[in-house]
Description:
- The structure holds two protein chains of two kinds.
- Chain A folds into two domains: about 300 residues, Up-down Bundle (ABC transporter transmembrane region fold); about 200 residues, Rossmann fold (3-Layer(aba) Sandwich).
- Chain A is about 60% helix and about 10% strand.
- Chain A is α/β, with parallel strands linked by helices.
- In chain A, strand 7, helix 16 and strand 8 form a beta-alpha-beta unit.
- In chain A, helix 1 packs antiparallel against helix 10.
- In chain B, helix 2 packs antiparallel against helix 4, helix 3 packs across helix 9 and helix 12 packs across helix 15.
- In chain B, strand 1 and strand 2 form a beta hairpin.
- Chain B folds into two domains: about 300 residues, ABC transporter type 1, transmembrane domain (ABC transporter transmembrane region fold); about 220 residues, Rossmann fold (3-Layer(aba) Sandwich).
- Chain B is an alpha/beta fold.
- Chain A: Pfam families: ABC_tran.
Amino acid sequence: xxxxxxxxxxxxxxxxxxxxxxxxxxxxxxxxxxxxxxxxxxxxxxxxxxxxxxxxxxxxxxxxxxxxxxxxxxxxxxxxxxxxxxxxxxxxxxxxxxxxxxxxxxxxxxxxxxxxxxxxxxxxxxxxxxxxxxxxxxxxxxxxxxxxxxxxxxxxxxxxxxxxxxxxxxxxxxxxxxxxxxxxxxxxxxxxxxxxxxxxxxxxxxxxxxxxxxxxxxxxxxxxxxxxxxxxxxxxxxxxxxxxxxxxxxxxxxxxxxxxxxxxxxxxxxxxxxxxxxxxxxxxxxxxxxxxxxxxxxxxxxxxxxxxxxxxxxxxxxxxxxxxxxxxxxxxxxxxxxxxxxxxxxxxxxxxxxxxxxxxxxxxxxxxxxxxxxxxxxxxxxxxxxxxxxxxxxxxxxxxxxxxxxxxxxxxxxxxxxxxxxxxxxxxxxxxxxxxxxxxxxxxxxxxxxxxxxxxxxxxxxxxxxxxxxxxxxxxxxxxxxxxxxxxxxxxxxxxxxxxxxxxxxxxxxxxxxxxxxxxxxxxxxxxxxxxxxxxxxxx
Amino acid sequence: xxxxxxxxxxxxxxxxxxxxxxxxxxxxxxxxxxxxxxxxxxxxxxxxxxxxxxxxxxxxxxxxxxxxxxxxxxxxxxxxxxxxxxxxxxxxxxxxxxxxxxxxxxxxxxxxxxxxxxxxxxxxxxxxxxxxxxxxxxxxxxxxxxxxxxxxxxxxxxxxxxxxxxxxxxxxxxxxxxxxxxxxxxxxxxxxxxxxxxxxxxxxxxxxxxxxxxxxxxxxxxxxxxxxxxxxxxxxxxxxxxxxxxxxxxxxxxxxxxxxxxxxxxxxxxxxxxxxxxxxxxxxxxxxxxxxxxxxxxxxxxxxxxxxxxxxxxxxxxxxxxxxxxxxxxxxxxxxxxxxxxxxxxxxxxxxxxxxxxxxxxxxxxxxxxxxxxxxxxxxxxxxxxxxxxxxxxxxxxxxxxxxxxxxxxxxxxxxxxxxxxxxxxxxxxxxxxxxxxxxxxxxxxxxxxxxxxxxxxxxxxxxxxxxxxxxxxxxxxxxxxxxxxxxxxxxxxxxxxxxxxxxxxxxxxxxxxxxxxxxxxxxxxxxxxxxxxxxxxxx
Lengths: 540, 540
């Protein structure tokens, strides 16, 4: 399995080169039409006026320019429509690619920490931010550079001095936006940091709202939030100011270029080197460049935002290579644990010096008070938490085996997806028949519940599994895990919310299914069961 | 608005003057005399534009700041009832992102709505000065534009609403799957999930392309009309200048200077309309955001208005008489109930979920409107100053939250003036001292985000330490052990029993494990006291 590349901004355009080039081309044609429309109509009206003054319109070919003007107008309208469609088509395609590749990257990274809902929300909006790069940075610059060159060539064709007079000012107008680069990038980064700070400052007091109100501390507790909010708004204002200021500078430079053009033009007119009509055309071409050059001022803020989004997304992808070439263990199984200690990085306590041995057909029940490290022990065995000590399976260390198809772990907060009950279960076994589904539901004591649902197997589980209670969700996940038929099962509190008789029944069914495998159950409930080894973790 | 008018005038001036200037370029004298004015207009326009942007940005910031404070106040007033607005994560999204989504609407669309009326009118008047017919053409085509916009816009609006929900659904699916990645990885179902992400993105692209086609079509129609009007004008003016208009052969209906002036104005005439069209999505975004905020803003927060000072200095008796709480849409949250809790008596409330146990606590906390009477000693709760009443209360929820700061800082949230001795004493009382004193940093150990590092039971005991520091006479405990396993819950219950002697205690709990110290257990909704202390002892 290849480790995927981190996101690079320049590779964003590479994935859909055809669509992007089409939209860039269309955009260029559209803007070209805009510039020539204005220039041509200026020339046309002046030339017509001149012709009208000299001899009453006879001999003046007004059909061809008028036709070109109409063509330009139509091109402008149609071009803009087509450009918008094609660029959005490409951008949405990019979004799709990004989502899929990011999903795969995250699927391969095996970081034990779960991402909080908020960080995931940010992830989604960060991906959405990335299409700003092609739309607001690449395209405007490409168009601006091409069109400016064309307009300058037009001037040079009209008269060299015209070009010489305006060249420095026009170039300066092009240079203005890049001067904001440094500041824009810094601001974007600062803004991203402040936004994260603001969210944190909002979440903290919200999570303890009632007590803060009772303690008369609410107002002081939300102060940091208001400060962060104001800070963020100030940053946004500075960003806007940066844009506005560069627009201002650019427009002033363009205005000066306009004046220089007039000044130079008037002397050319006086010496008869240039007609009024062509001078007006030159002037209006510059006028039209306003529309082309202004978006450049926004480009670097957009660049900064895309870069910040890219950095955050790349942070997520710490990639581990899957262990495909390792051998799979076969039964009968024998698991021995000697002097195992493990601890979450931030935890104050964890399992300490644990030893046991387990053989196929046996069940290990781990109990102990909360905080004793029952869950951490299971996570260590499941490979989600680093540990010290010796763990061997069939006399080889755990790392020797490829466990992804034979070890199943049920965490305390399993994930139930916003799909139907059957779809959730079939994540474990895509080919499972309905009969198998009902059988496994019966084994985890959910058959009666599922039968009582109006939609039965097609019942929707709701966002984050909200349609089911915590205990039910855990048993749905258990059923799903059972469908994968893993020989080694590690279950964290599978019986939550069950009375002792049902607990007993479910535990029996579990043992029945794991006859030739290993079963490790963490539970604070006591239940008598045969072939069971009990392990009691001492209190903290 | 003054700025806008000035901006308009300057715009007019610029156009007008440049016309004159170009008209008389053969004479350099005129150019020289006009140059300062022309320069003033050309440079003044970007400056005024800059000012306008600054003003609208700060206006938008003011509005957002105010709205955010308002939303936060509404949430704060709801107290523990804030959960009706969603989880803390989704509340913070509303508070932050949704309020920020109004930016584009306020800073651009809002102003543009007025500009769209004022600018074309002023330009039409200016045009009429030269040619009534040209002004008529402009004014005739102008209303067509909004008409078509409305026709197309309505279709586009409903379609874009649909697109918003589609987008939310796709984001939700992506989020749901990413969140469950560890589970998917475990089940070897990542590939199937990636396909599902790709399919959702593809479907989203197809559906939103449909919407975009429609939305861009409205833009294209606008563009088409403005092009048509400009072409009509150009034809009329051009032929007029040539003197070959069918009804005015040989006459020049509009002189060159006027013609050029009109031609320069024409694009500006449609510019605000076009801008409005492209800012349309800002409006749609704002509408969606406002729709999300509506439930919070519309909810009439109830204000406690009592003003008598509270006259107790020991645990008081609480008499509840025909207390009834109704929620939104006339839904009954608590059926009428009468209770008597003696001074220093400790009772538990039990009942099926949804019978109003928590609502009763919220009413006692002073966050909910109720009908009936609550007497604290001899005084009615509704007459007492809220602040004084709340100072007497200790409250604990299912899950206690802490800020990302040290243990000492968290304790001092409840009692800012507490000394180190006091802190260690309460920690000893809740039996956390042995654990915390062993830590290298002692009570200055940092707690991670949301109190990471301590187990659920330890966190609840830390919350209990906060209660002890407040030295409140009345404790209201809302299922403090709901998320704890049996043994830990038992220990917490016992601890609460030891530490709440002499206080009036109202405890909501599903399990009575370890609560043998209670004086009464009251079952809702009927309010029958089902167990007395003697029964409990017999049971134990």
